[in-house]
Amino acid sequence: LDGLAVAAARQFGGRPTQRATLHLKLAFLGDVGSSQLPDVLAAGERVAAAPFTLHVDRLGFWPHNHLLWAGCAPVTGLDLLVARLDAALSATGHPLPARGRNFRPHLTLVRKIYGTPPQAEIDRLLADDLPEWRCARFRLVESRLSASGPGYSTLAEFALAA
Fold this sequence. Notes:
Order of helices and strands: HEHEEHHEHEEE
Strand order of the largest sheet: 1-4-3-2-5
CATH architecture: Alpha-Beta Complex
Number of domains: 1
CATH superfamily: Cyclic phosphodiesterase
Structural class: alpha+beta
Mean pLDDT: 86
Largest sheet: 5 strands, antiparallel
């Protein structure tokens, strides 16, 4: 997918996501204070979901934040993981923000695309042979935006088990 990000940035402008920082965002928690972090970590530990496979099969553009994203068809395992994560967070008094409940899991490929690329041109970038991803774990990741782009730090990793 990093090659796709570079090709899209060449075609539409913007900044491609680096291979090392490509990730599927399950949910956006917003600002989590240090006093809330133990509850969030405990919620992640309580999530019980089986591993599953994703196949990236769509690209889209969000003009409000100027980014090109990759997504996948609904997958029961992914939907179940997000629902159980929300339930575990809700039990601690920290449910996903309302916008998080309708959040579309996605991979950000290119940021800072100004102007709206035609969907037909975006669709032409999508190859038939994009890789499947076997999802056997999820992470709690802190993101910080700076002038040079986003930075990510993994705070915890949680295994999925049948």
